[in-house]
Design the sequence.
């Protein structure tokens, strides 16, 4: 077993997950970065993690696949021998935005299969590994951090399946926080607002206008690093008497205004 604490970050090949992986490596974690891309296509992003000088592996895996989830757990345990943090960040938007009266079963299965089912069963597998290590060794204080969205509570009728998946992640947070509290495993949810990544590339102009017109009290795009900093704080142990907590990293989007 290596001395570094070990963090698994899903969706770390780009965007928010990549920034989280860089930050946790900067904080001294060994990092297992998960994504579906071939390693050769994301060399620069992976090098950003590697350049922090901590032990690092990339695992090409689809979290919607049972065998891939098993492979993630096995690879991390084989290479590092421990897991201290799971950041459930991997997620997709619908391939096509469609009015809720037109949403297809195919799109629902695709989005829920990755965002919800994949996240649930990866969490279950890694939580079991965390429980085992707590029972075998002293000094472990594992954490699970779910990246949901303001879409967990905000209606977008053009992407119902995404909103439903994110509302489901909020319940995954509550359920695992409750179940795992007896082992000292804390579970948190981060709700990002509008973040400047590939996911928002297709709606950049629209969101730009909304932000400029006052959609968020803090008038700027969120950056992947905003989320990475929040993850870093949650992993620091300074919030260890909190579990099931939701951290809004959204420029104040959640504030109701009159
Ligand atoms: N951007 C925003 O405004 C925003 C706001 C709220 C919440 N979020 C949430 O934050 C998370 C990250 O979003 P992002 O903006 O960084 O998105 P992104 O730039 O589109 O990146 C998505 C990441 O998820 C990975 N991924 C997708 N499907 C996967 C699968 N089946 N198995 C494993 N990895 C998979 C991708 O890896 P590959 O490319 O290698 O497949 C990629 O690394 C998502 O859960 C998203 O819903 C984003």
Sequence:
């Amino acid at each position: 077993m290596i001395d570094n604490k070990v963090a698994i970050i899903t969706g770390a090949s780009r965007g928010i997950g990549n920034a989280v992986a860089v930050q946790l490596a900067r904080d001294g974690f060994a990092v297992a970065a998960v994504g579906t891309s071939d390693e050769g296509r994301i060399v620069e992003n992976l090098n950003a993690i590697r350049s922090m000088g901590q032990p690092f592996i990339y695992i090409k895996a689809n979290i919607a696949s049972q065998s891939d989830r098993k492979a993630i757990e096995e690879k991390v345990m084989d290479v590092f021998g421990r897991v201290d943090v799971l950041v459930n960040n991997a997620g997709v938007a619908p391939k096509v935005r469609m009015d809720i009266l037109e949403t297809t079963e195919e799109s629902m299965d695709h989005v829920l299969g990755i965002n919800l089912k994949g996240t649930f069963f990866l969490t279950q597998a890694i939580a079991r590994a965390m429980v085992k290590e707590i029972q075998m060794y002293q000094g472990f204080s594992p954490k699970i951090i779910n990246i949901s969205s303001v879409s967990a509570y905000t209606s977008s009728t053009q992407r119902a399946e995404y909103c439903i998946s994110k509302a489901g992640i909020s319940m995954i947070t509550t359920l695992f926080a409750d179940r795992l509290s007896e082992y000292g495993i804390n579970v948190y949810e981060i709700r990002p607002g509008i973040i400047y990544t590939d996911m928002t590339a297709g709606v950049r102009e629209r969101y730009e206008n909304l932000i400029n017109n006052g959609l968020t009290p803090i008038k700027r795009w969120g950056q992947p690093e905003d989320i990475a900093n929040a993850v870093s704080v949650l992993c620091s142990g300074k919030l260890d008497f909190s579990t099931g907590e939701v951290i809004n990293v959204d420029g104040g989007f959640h504030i109701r205004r009159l």
Observations:
- The chain has seven helices and seven strands.
- The mean pLDDT is 98.
